[in-house]
Protein backbone atom coordinates (compact mmCIF):
# COMPACT_ATOMS: atom_id res chain seq x y z
CA UNK A 1 0.00 0.00 0.00
CA UNK A 2 1.55 3.33 -1.06
CA UNK A 3 0.06 6.66 -0.04
CA UNK A 4 0.92 10.08 -1.46
CA UNK A 5 0.69 12.34 1.58
CA UNK A 6 1.23 10.89 4.98
CA UNK A 7 0.69 12.56 8.36
CA UNK A 8 2.99 11.53 11.18
CA UNK A 9 1.82 12.77 14.59
CA UNK A 10 4.41 13.05 17.36
CA UNK A 11 7.15 12.89 14.73
CA UNK A 12 9.65 14.75 16.93
CA UNK A 13 9.41 12.09 19.61
CA UNK A 14 11.63 9.04 20.06
CA UNK A 15 9.88 6.46 17.88
CA UNK A 16 8.24 8.94 15.49
CA UNK A 17 11.57 10.56 14.56
CA UNK A 18 13.26 7.16 14.10
CA UNK A 19 10.31 6.14 11.91
CA UNK A 20 10.71 9.24 9.71
CA UNK A 21 14.45 8.45 9.42
CA UNK A 22 13.49 4.99 8.08
CA UNK A 23 10.76 6.35 5.81
CA UNK A 24 12.90 8.99 4.12
CA UNK A 25 15.43 6.29 3.14
CA UNK A 26 12.84 3.77 2.04
CA UNK A 27 10.43 6.19 0.36
CA UNK A 28 12.42 9.35 -0.42
CA UNK A 29 9.78 11.00 -2.61
CA UNK A 30 6.84 10.62 -0.23
CA UNK A 31 5.22 13.81 1.06
CA UNK A 32 5.51 13.67 4.83
CA UNK A 33 3.65 16.06 7.15
CA UNK A 34 4.97 15.97 10.70
CA UNK A 35 2.57 17.32 13.32
CA UNK A 36 3.99 17.83 16.79
CA UNK A 37 3.06 20.06 19.71
CA UNK A 38 6.72 20.25 20.77
CA UNK A 39 6.18 19.18 24.36
CA UNK A 40 9.18 18.64 26.65
CA UNK A 41 9.53 15.20 24.97
CA UNK A 42 10.10 16.54 21.46
CA UNK A 43 13.60 16.60 20.00
CA UNK A 44 13.90 19.66 17.73
CA UNK A 45 17.30 18.44 16.53
CA UNK A 46 15.44 15.91 14.37
CA UNK A 47 14.49 18.80 12.09
CA UNK A 48 18.21 19.34 11.33
CA UNK A 49 18.53 15.70 10.25
CA UNK A 50 15.73 16.26 7.73
CA UNK A 51 16.72 19.71 6.49
CA UNK A 52 17.81 18.34 3.07
CA UNK A 53 14.42 16.60 2.64
CA UNK A 54 12.16 19.23 1.11
CA UNK A 55 9.27 16.72 1.11
CA UNK A 56 9.25 16.64 4.94
CA UNK A 57 6.97 19.43 6.16
CA UNK A 58 6.85 20.30 9.84
CA UNK A 59 3.71 21.72 11.47
CA UNK A 60 3.71 22.82 15.10
CA UNK A 61 0.30 21.97 16.53
CA UNK A 62 -1.81 19.98 18.94
CA UNK A 63 -3.70 16.81 17.95
CA UNK A 64 -6.51 18.04 20.22
CA UNK A 65 -7.13 20.94 17.80
CA UNK A 66 -9.84 19.52 15.54
CA UNK A 67 -9.96 22.61 13.29
CA UNK A 68 -6.23 22.45 12.61
CA UNK A 69 -6.41 18.72 11.88
CA UNK A 70 -9.22 19.16 9.37
CA UNK A 71 -7.27 21.91 7.63
CA UNK A 72 -4.14 19.70 7.44
CA UNK A 73 -6.12 16.74 6.11
CA UNK A 74 -8.02 18.64 3.41
CA UNK A 75 -5.29 21.06 2.30
CA UNK A 76 -2.70 18.30 1.92
CA UNK A 77 -5.01 15.46 0.86
CA UNK A 78 -3.71 13.25 3.66
CA UNK A 79 -3.98 9.58 2.62
CA UNK A 80 -2.16 7.95 5.49
CA UNK A 81 -1.77 8.59 9.21
CA UNK A 82 0.78 7.08 11.54
CA UNK A 83 -0.25 8.25 14.98
CA UNK A 84 2.59 8.35 17.51
CA UNK A 85 1.72 11.55 19.41
CA UNK A 86 1.13 10.79 23.06
CA UNK A 87 2.12 11.56 26.58
CA UNK A 88 4.28 8.48 27.03
CA UNK A 89 6.00 8.45 30.42
CA UNK A 90 4.30 6.31 33.09
CA UNK A 91 5.91 8.21 36.00
CA UNK A 92 4.53 11.52 34.69
CA UNK A 93 1.07 9.97 34.39
CA UNK A 94 1.13 9.18 38.09
CA UNK A 95 2.05 12.76 39.02
CA UNK A 96 -0.21 14.51 36.47
CA UNK A 97 -2.71 12.31 34.62
CA UNK A 98 -4.73 15.09 32.98
CA UNK A 99 -2.51 15.69 29.95
CA UNK A 100 -2.55 11.93 29.33
CA UNK A 101 -6.34 11.94 29.15
CA UNK A 102 -6.32 15.04 26.94
CA UNK A 103 -3.68 14.02 24.42
CA UNK A 104 -3.97 10.24 24.40
CA UNK A 105 -7.78 10.03 24.46
CA UNK A 106 -9.17 13.36 23.20
CA UNK A 107 -6.31 13.86 20.75
CA UNK A 108 -6.82 10.42 19.23
CA UNK A 109 -10.55 11.11 19.05
CA UNK A 110 -9.95 14.39 17.16
CA UNK A 111 -7.59 12.66 14.77
CA UNK A 112 -10.11 9.89 14.05
CA UNK A 113 -12.78 12.53 13.48
CA UNK A 114 -10.58 14.44 11.02
CA UNK A 115 -9.92 11.20 9.10
CA UNK A 116 -13.60 10.25 9.15
CA UNK A 117 -14.74 13.68 7.93
CA UNK A 118 -12.11 13.77 5.19
CA UNK A 119 -12.15 10.19 3.95
CA UNK A 120 -15.81 9.14 4.22
CA UNK A 121 -18.83 10.52 2.36
CA UNK A 122 -22.27 11.11 3.88
CA UNK A 123 -23.13 7.39 3.45
CA UNK A 124 -20.00 6.45 5.46
CA UNK A 125 -18.42 5.06 2.25
CA UNK A 126 -14.81 5.83 1.44
CA UNK A 127 -14.61 8.69 -1.07
CA UNK A 128 -13.09 7.49 -4.34
CA UNK A 129 -9.94 9.64 -3.94
CA UNK A 130 -9.33 8.16 -0.48
CA UNK A 131 -9.94 4.49 -1.30
CA UNK A 132 -6.39 3.59 -0.31
CA UNK A 133 -6.27 5.70 2.84
CA UNK A 134 -5.11 4.15 6.11
CA UNK A 135 -4.91 5.16 9.79
CA UNK A 136 -2.22 3.39 11.82
CA UNK A 137 -2.51 3.75 15.58
CA UNK A 138 0.65 3.16 17.60
CA UNK A 139 0.03 1.64 21.00
CA UNK A 140 1.70 -0.28 23.78
CA UNK A 141 1.69 -3.72 25.40
CA UNK A 142 0.99 -1.92 28.70
CA UNK A 143 -2.75 -1.86 27.89
CA UNK A 144 -2.86 -5.56 28.79
CA UNK A 145 -1.85 -5.06 32.44
CA UNK A 146 0.72 -7.19 34.25
CA UNK A 147 1.79 -10.83 34.00
CA UNK A 148 3.15 -13.20 36.64
CA UNK A 149 6.23 -15.36 36.03
CA UNK A 150 4.62 -17.16 33.09
CA UNK A 151 2.48 -16.43 30.02
CA UNK A 152 2.42 -13.87 27.21
CA UNK A 153 0.07 -11.16 26.00
CA UNK A 154 -1.60 -11.94 22.68
CA UNK A 155 -3.97 -9.84 20.57
CA UNK A 156 -6.81 -11.67 22.34
CA UNK A 157 -5.74 -10.76 25.89
CA UNK A 158 -8.33 -8.59 27.65
CA UNK A 159 -7.23 -5.05 28.48
CA UNK A 160 -6.37 -4.46 32.15
CA UNK A 161 -4.40 -1.19 32.31
CA UNK A 162 -2.88 -0.30 35.67
CA UNK A 163 -1.53 3.25 35.23
CA UNK A 164 -3.17 6.45 33.95
CA UNK A 165 -0.78 6.16 30.96
CA UNK A 166 -1.83 2.64 30.01
CA UNK A 167 -5.50 3.42 30.75
CA UNK A 168 -5.40 6.39 28.38
CA UNK A 169 -3.70 4.30 25.68
CA UNK A 170 -6.25 1.50 26.17
CA UNK A 171 -9.04 4.06 25.75
CA UNK A 172 -7.49 5.31 22.53
CA UNK A 173 -7.17 1.72 21.24
CA UNK A 174 -10.89 1.21 21.93
CA UNK A 175 -11.78 4.41 20.08
CA UNK A 176 -9.73 3.34 17.07
CA UNK A 177 -11.41 -0.07 17.04
CA UNK A 178 -14.86 1.52 17.30
CA UNK A 179 -14.23 3.77 14.28
CA UNK A 180 -13.53 0.66 12.21
CA UNK A 181 -16.63 -1.19 13.38
CA UNK A 182 -18.97 1.82 13.40
CA UNK A 183 -17.84 3.84 10.38
CA UNK A 184 -15.61 1.45 8.46
CA UNK A 185 -12.64 3.77 8.92
CA UNK A 186 -9.56 1.92 7.55
CA UNK A 187 -7.52 1.43 10.73
CA UNK A 188 -4.76 -0.85 11.96
CA UNK A 189 -3.23 -0.89 15.46
CA UNK A 190 0.10 -2.13 16.72
CA UNK A 191 0.82 -2.77 20.42
CA UNK A 192 4.54 -2.85 21.01
CA UNK A 193 6.77 -3.71 23.94
CA UNK A 194 9.52 -1.43 25.39
CA UNK A 195 11.63 0.27 22.73
CA UNK A 196 15.23 1.32 23.07
CA UNK A 197 17.64 3.07 20.73
CA UNK A 198 18.96 6.48 19.70
CA UNK A 199 17.05 9.73 20.32
CA UNK A 200 15.01 8.59 23.33
CA UNK A 201 14.17 11.24 25.91
CA UNK A 202 16.64 11.42 28.79
CA UNK A 203 13.90 10.55 31.34
CA UNK A 204 13.63 6.92 30.13
CA UNK A 205 15.52 3.97 31.68
CA UNK A 206 18.53 3.46 29.38
CA UNK A 207 19.36 7.17 28.82
CA UNK A 208 18.99 7.72 32.59
CA UNK A 209 21.45 4.92 33.42
CA UNK A 210 24.02 6.36 30.99
CA UNK A 211 23.57 9.98 32.07
CA UNK A 212 23.77 9.21 35.79
CA UNK A 213 26.79 6.96 35.33
CA UNK A 214 28.73 9.54 33.32
CA UNK A 215 27.89 12.23 35.89
CA UNK A 216 29.05 9.87 38.68
CA UNK A 217 25.59 10.13 40.26
CA UNK A 218 23.65 7.25 41.87
CA UNK A 219 21.93 5.16 39.17
CA UNK A 220 18.33 4.77 40.44
CA UNK A 221 16.62 1.39 40.07
CA UNK A 222 13.04 0.98 41.25
CA UNK A 223 12.59 -1.59 44.08
CA UNK A 224 14.51 -4.82 43.59
CA UNK A 225 15.03 -4.20 39.86
CA UNK A 226 13.36 -7.53 39.14
CA UNK A 227 10.51 -6.08 37.03
CA UNK A 228 10.58 -7.63 33.58
CA UNK A 229 9.97 -6.01 30.20
CA UNK A 230 10.33 -7.22 26.63
CA UNK A 231 12.83 -4.98 24.79
CA UNK A 232 12.83 -4.17 21.09
CA UNK A 233 15.31 -2.05 19.11
CA UNK A 234 13.47 0.98 17.74
CA UNK A 235 14.56 0.35 14.13
CA UNK A 236 12.98 -3.11 14.27
CA UNK A 237 9.79 -1.50 15.61
CA UNK A 238 9.82 1.02 12.74
CA UNK A 239 10.12 -1.85 10.24
CA UNK A 240 7.18 -3.59 11.93
CA UNK A 241 5.12 -0.40 11.65
CA UNK A 242 5.94 -0.09 7.96
CA UNK A 243 5.04 -3.76 7.41
CA UNK A 244 1.66 -3.39 9.12
CA UNK A 245 0.97 -0.03 7.45
CA UNK A 246 1.58 -1.60 4.03
CA UNK A 247 0.26 -5.13 4.47
CA UNK A 248 -1.81 -5.37 7.65
CA UNK A 249 -5.47 -6.33 7.46
CA UNK A 250 -7.81 -3.43 8.18
CA UNK A 251 -9.43 -3.52 11.62
CA UNK A 252 -6.73 -5.86 12.95
CA UNK A 253 -4.37 -5.48 15.89
CA UNK A 254 -0.77 -6.72 15.75
CA UNK A 255 1.42 -7.20 18.80
CA UNK A 256 5.09 -6.35 18.21
CA UNK A 257 7.96 -7.52 20.40
CA UNK A 258 11.56 -8.63 20.48
CA UNK A 259 11.33 -12.02 22.27
CA UNK A 260 13.79 -10.43 24.60
CA UNK A 261 12.70 -10.37 28.23
CA UNK A 262 15.04 -8.63 30.66
CA UNK A 263 14.77 -7.40 34.22
CA UNK A 264 15.56 -3.73 34.78
CA UNK A 265 18.66 -4.87 36.66
CA UNK A 266 19.80 -6.95 33.67
CA UNK A 267 19.35 -3.94 31.39
CA UNK A 268 21.33 -1.81 33.81
CA UNK A 269 24.12 -4.39 34.07
CA UNK A 270 24.33 -4.77 30.27
CA UNK A 271 24.59 -0.98 29.80
CA UNK A 272 27.23 -0.73 32.52
CA UNK A 273 29.37 -3.46 30.92
CA UNK A 274 29.47 -1.40 27.70
CA UNK A 275 30.19 1.82 29.61
CA UNK A 276 33.01 0.17 31.59
CA UNK A 277 34.63 -0.78 28.26
CA UNK A 278 33.85 2.36 26.23
CA UNK A 279 34.23 5.04 28.91
CA UNK A 280 36.08 3.63 31.95
CA UNK A 281 35.78 5.58 35.20
CA UNK A 282 38.78 7.63 36.27
CA UNK A 283 38.96 5.71 39.59
CA UNK A 284 39.29 2.38 37.72
CA UNK A 285 36.16 0.90 39.35
CA UNK A 286 33.00 -0.32 37.62
CA UNK A 287 29.94 1.93 37.29
CA UNK A 288 28.15 -1.00 38.91
CA UNK A 289 28.85 0.45 42.37
CA UNK A 290 26.67 3.49 41.48
CA UNK A 291 23.49 1.37 41.26
CA UNK A 292 21.08 2.52 43.98
CA UNK A 293 17.76 0.85 44.69
CA UNK A 294 15.02 3.45 45.26
CA UNK A 295 11.42 3.20 46.49
CA UNK A 296 9.28 1.38 43.91
CA UNK A 297 6.70 3.42 42.00
CA UNK A 298 3.00 2.86 42.73
CA UNK A 299 1.28 0.27 40.54
CA UNK A 300 4.59 -0.90 39.03
CA UNK A 301 3.60 -3.85 36.81
CA UNK A 302 5.79 -6.90 37.50
CA UNK A 303 6.16 -8.36 34.02
CA UNK A 304 5.18 -7.67 30.42
CA UNK A 305 5.88 -10.27 27.74
CA UNK A 306 4.36 -10.53 24.29
CA UNK A 307 3.64 -13.27 21.80
CA UNK A 308 4.30 -11.60 18.44
CA UNK A 309 3.59 -14.69 16.33
CA UNK A 310 0.68 -13.08 14.44
CA UNK A 311 2.77 -10.37 12.75
CA UNK A 312 5.53 -12.92 12.08
CA UNK A 313 3.27 -15.59 10.55
CA UNK A 314 0.82 -13.35 8.70
CA UNK A 315 3.06 -10.50 7.56
CA UNK A 316 6.55 -12.01 7.67
CA UNK A 317 8.07 -9.43 10.03
CA UNK A 318 10.95 -10.42 12.33
CA UNK A 319 13.11 -8.40 14.71
CA UNK A 320 16.50 -8.61 12.97
CA UNK A 321 18.91 -6.74 15.26
CA UNK A 322 20.59 -8.67 18.07
CA UNK A 323 20.05 -7.18 21.53
CA UNK A 324 23.81 -6.94 22.16
CA UNK A 325 24.54 -5.06 18.90
CA UNK A 326 21.55 -2.78 19.33
CA UNK A 327 22.48 -1.92 22.92
CA UNK A 328 26.08 -1.14 21.93
CA UNK A 329 24.82 1.13 19.11
CA UNK A 330 22.47 2.82 21.59
CA UNK A 331 25.08 3.41 24.30
CA UNK A 332 27.60 4.76 21.77
CA UNK A 333 24.92 7.14 20.45
CA UNK A 334 24.30 8.58 23.93
CA UNK A 335 28.01 8.85 24.71
CA UNK A 336 28.46 10.85 21.49
CA UNK A 337 25.46 13.07 22.21
CA UNK A 338 26.53 13.74 25.82
CA UNK A 339 29.89 14.88 24.40
CA UNK A 340 28.22 17.39 22.07
CA UNK A 341 25.89 18.91 24.70
N1 LIG B 1 8.72 4.26 23.93
C1 LIG B 1 8.26 3.03 24.02
O1 LIG B 1 8.95 2.13 24.52
C2 LIG B 1 6.89 2.69 23.48
C3 LIG B 1 6.51 1.35 23.42
C4 LIG B 1 5.28 1.03 22.86
C5 LIG B 1 4.45 2.03 22.39
N2 LIG B 1 4.83 3.32 22.48
C6 LIG B 1 3.92 4.35 21.93
O2 LIG B 1 4.60 4.92 20.82
C7 LIG B 1 4.24 6.29 20.69
C8 LIG B 1 5.49 7.14 20.63
O3 LIG B 1 6.23 6.93 21.84
P1 LIG B 1 7.60 7.71 22.10
O4 LIG B 1 8.36 6.93 23.07
O5 LIG B 1 8.21 8.08 20.80
O6 LIG B 1 7.03 9.04 22.80
P2 LIG B 1 7.77 10.41 23.09
O7 LIG B 1 7.26 10.88 24.41
O8 LIG B 1 9.25 10.29 22.89
O9 LIG B 1 7.24 11.38 21.94
C9 LIG B 1 5.92 11.85 21.90
C10 LIG B 1 5.86 13.00 20.89
O10 LIG B 1 4.48 13.42 20.79
C11 LIG B 1 4.43 14.83 20.86
N3 LIG B 1 3.13 15.22 21.45
C12 LIG B 1 2.72 15.02 22.73
N4 LIG B 1 1.49 15.52 22.90
C13 LIG B 1 1.10 16.02 21.69
C14 LIG B 1 -0.09 16.65 21.22
N5 LIG B 1 -1.11 16.88 22.04
N6 LIG B 1 -0.15 17.02 19.93
C15 LIG B 1 0.89 16.80 19.08
N7 LIG B 1 2.05 16.22 19.48
C16 LIG B 1 2.14 15.83 20.77
C17 LIG B 1 5.60 15.23 21.75
O11 LIG B 1 5.98 16.60 21.53
C18 LIG B 1 6.67 14.23 21.31
O12 LIG B 1 7.41 14.72 20.21
C19 LIG B 1 3.32 6.61 21.86
O13 LIG B 1 2.00 6.57 21.40
C20 LIG B 1 3.60 5.49 22.84
O14 LIG B 1 2.45 5.23 23.62
C21 LIG B 1 6.04 3.68 23.01
Give me a quick take on this structure.
By secondary structure, this protein is α/β, with parallel strands linked by helices. The chain has helices at residues 14-26, 45-49, 66-76, 90-95, 98-119, 164-183, 205-214, 234-247, 264-278, 309-315, 323-339, and strands at residues 5-9, 31-36, 56-60, 78-83, 134-140, 187-192, 194-196, 219-222, 228-233, 253-256, 261-263, 291-294.
Describe the structure.
With about 350 residues, this protein is α/β, with parallel strands linked by helices. The protein has one domain: Rossmann fold. It has helices spanning about 15-25, 45-50, 65-75, 90-95, 100-120, 165-185, 205-215, 235-245, 265-280, 310-315, 325-340, and strands at about 5-10, 30-35, 55-60, 80-85, 135-140, 185-190, 195, 220, 230-235, 255, 260-265, 290-295. It has a seven-stranded parallel beta sheet, sandwiched between helices. The protein has a three-stranded mixed beta sheet with strand order 7-9-11. Strand 1 (about 5-10), helix 1 (about 15-25) and strand 2 (about 30-35) form a beta-alpha-beta unit. It is globular, with a radius of gyration of 20 Å. The model has no long low-confidence stretch (mean pLDDT about 95). The site of nicotinamide-adenine-dinucleotide (NAD) has 31 residues, from helix 1, strand 2, helix 5, strand 5 and strand 7.
List the helices and strands and how they pair.
Layout: E1 5-9, H1 14-26, E2 31-36, H2 45-49, E3 56-60, H3 66-76, E4 78-83, H4 90-95, H5 98-119, E5 134-140, H6 164-183, E6 187-192, E7 194-196, H7 205-214, E8 219-222, E9 228-233, H8 234-247, E10 253-256, E11 261-263, H9 264-278, E12 291-294, H10 309-315, H11 323-339
Parallel strand pairs: 1-2, 1-4, 2-3, 4-5, 5-6, 6-10, 7-9, 8-12
Antiparallel strand pairs: 9-11
Bound molecules: nicotinamide-adenine-dinucleotide (NAD).
Nicotinamide-adenine-dinucleotide binds next to helix 1, strand 2, helix 5, strand 5 and strand 7.
